[in-house]
Every structure is written in structure tokens, then in C-alpha cells.
Amino acid sequence: MLKRFGEKLHLLRVSHGMTLSELASATGLRTHSYISELEAGKKIPTVNFVITIAKFFAVTTDYLLIDEIDSINITKTYEEK
User: Fold this and answer.
1) How far is the CA of 76 from the CAs of 17, 24, 33, 41, in angstroms?
2) What domains can you pick out in the chain, each with its CATH number?
3) What is the pLDDT of residue 81?
4) What distance in Å separates the CA atoms of residue 9 and residue 13, rounded to the nearest whole number?
5) What pTM was estimated for this model as a whole?
6) CA-CA distance, 37 to 12, in Å (whole number)?
């Protein structure tokens, strides 16, 4: 679990046309470095951050945390809206 969290976070951010700084600001962070490290797989997200991201992008925490749930499905869902 969590090996793909950064990949999924990156996919969500990019598919919504957001920069690292924009996402950081939108989620209450002062800088984008934490998000950058998460996307690169250098850090493990806190529970609070996972919940914040799930609410912000309207995805489930299962999607974010379970590696076997495919990223492609969420992209198609977003693009169809």
C-alpha cells in the first residue's frame, strides 16, 4: 500500500490543471515542498492530508491508499464531467 499515492496525487493535480503551489495553497500548506516530496515518493502522507486530498478532489481514501485501484478510472471519470 501507498507505493502509488504520489503517482495518484500527481495525476489528480495535473488533471485538474493545478500547479504544486496552487494545490499547496488550496489545501492549507505554506509551501509546495511537502506535496512535491509526496509525489516523488519521498514522504508518506499524514492521515489528515489523505482526508484533505480525498475531499478536495472528491475521491475516496481507498482510491488514494490502495495501490491496486487503477488511476486510469479516476482520470476518465474526471474527463467525462
Assistant:
1) 15, 24, 28, 24
2) 5-80 (1.10.260.40)
3) 43
4) 6
5) 0.84
6) 15
